[in-house]
Write a structure and sequence with these properties.
CATH architecture of the largest domain: 3-Layer(bba) Sandwich
Shape: elongated
Low-confidence stretches: 1-6
Mean pLDDT: 90
Number of domains: 2
CATH class of the largest domain: Alpha Beta
Number of strands: 17
CATH topology of the largest domain: FAD/NAD(P)-binding domain
CATH superfamily of the largest domain: FAD/NAD(P)-binding domain
Number of helices: 9
Order of helices and strands: EHEHEEEEEHEHEHEHEEEEEEHEHH
Structural class: alpha/beta
Strand content: 15-25%
Largest sheet: 7 strands, mixed
Length: 335
């Protein structure tokens, strides 16, 4: 009868080596850490404590947790990590390098240093918010960046998309799923929507474009009442969506030589493995939908892949040799 193994204990202070180092403590990083701990690996999660969605009032569409507060979701994940023996370390990772023994050397702000056999980047993205007075009072409640996450709450409401070019047009068209009262505000910048396709589709949905600079957001509590324009007029709106630029939360992917796309996302394969040896990535830093539930799922997939990469040869069978297609067809057609 096989005996179960006890979870691996975290390394003692001063000999900080782990099977896996996870950089980033959001849904992707915490989900990966939980699964890796369940595989009895020693795991450390290093988190800067500055999540992208900190001001957001709720996370929508997370199975079984409708409207869960981001802090509560992270708090629950961190508690589960503690119960499973995961080391939680608060701090900013300054640099990661490959050591001579093929281990990763992770340098943390303040002089800390640890090593790991595998590295998971769950570092997320940062949003470039415009400097509009009043935005800080409504962000996360009625000012958003993700139609997939928050479009449902805009159904039938007056919506302003703040941005320019293809990104603003795409966001405005996406929001027509929930509302027909949409205007694009460029905040004093050129609209950059001269392409015939842009104009035709905006006209078909009666989406107007205003190019006046925005002087501020009229609000009451967390509620948006209007956009105050520099020309002295007011645009009555209920919801704001920002088509804004994004960038990786740090440059660890570049340091490690990971292939990235034009938007700075780290490119991964179906196993969430990057182009760098033994480096995995999950969450908003990889291409795809930026949803908390997707990030958590990717963290689990990455954990399975990392575990399989750590399994010794004597614990697994060699892959079967595949017969050629001709032999398979021949065998299938034999009487």
């Amino acid at each position: 009868m096989a005996r179960s193994r006890a979870p691996k204990k975290p390394p003692k202070h001063g000999s900080e080596h782990y099977d896996v180092a996870v950089v980033g403590g959001g849904p992707a990083g915490l989900s990966a850490a939980i699964w890796l701990a369940r595989y009895l690996h020693s795991v450390v999660v290093i988190d800067s404590g500055d999540p992208r969605n900190w001001e957001t009032l709720s996370i929508n569409g997370y199975l079984g947790l409708p409207g869960v507060c981001p802090a509560d979701l992270r708090g629950g994940g961190r508690q589960t990590c503690r119960e499973l023996g995961v080391t939680l370390r608060d701090g900013l990772v300054l640099r990661t390098d490959h050591g001579d023994d093929d281990r990763f050397i992770v340098c943390v702000e303040g002089g800390g240093r640890l090593t790991a056999d595998r590295l998971l980047l769950a570092i997320g993205l940062r949003d470039v918010w415009p400097d509009i007075p009043g935005l800080e009072h409504v962000y996360g409640a009625n000012a958003h960046v993700c139609p997939d996450c928050d479009g449902f709450d805009a159904r039938g409401k007056r919506v302003a998309v703040i941005g320019t070019g293809r990104k603003a047009v795409t966001m405005a068209l996406n929001l027509t799923t929930w509302t027909r009262d949409i205007v694009i505000c460029t905040n004093g910048r050129p609209a950059d929507v001269d392409a015939p396709e842009y104009c035709d589709k905006l006209d078909a949905h009666d989406i107007r474009i205003l190019t006046d600079p925005i002087a501020g957001i009229g609000y009451r509590g967390h509620t948006v009442e209007c956009l105050e324009l520099a020309n002295g007029s007011r645009l009555d709106v209920d919801k704001l969506f920002f088509a804004i630029a994004q960038y990786p939360a740090d440059d660890l992917g570049a340091q490690l030589g990971c292939t990235r796309d034009r938007g700075g996302h780290i490119v991964v394969d179906e196993r969430l493995h990057t182009s760098a040896h033994n480096v995995f990535a999950a969450g908003d830093i990889v291409p795809g939908p930026q949803l908390a539930v997707v990030a958590a799922a990717q963290g689990a997939v990455a954990a399975v892949s990392i575990h399989k990469s750590l399994v010794r040869d004597d614990q697994k069978l060699m892959p079967r040799r595949r017969r050629s297609a001709r032999r398979r067809i021949s065998a299938a057609s034999s009487p």
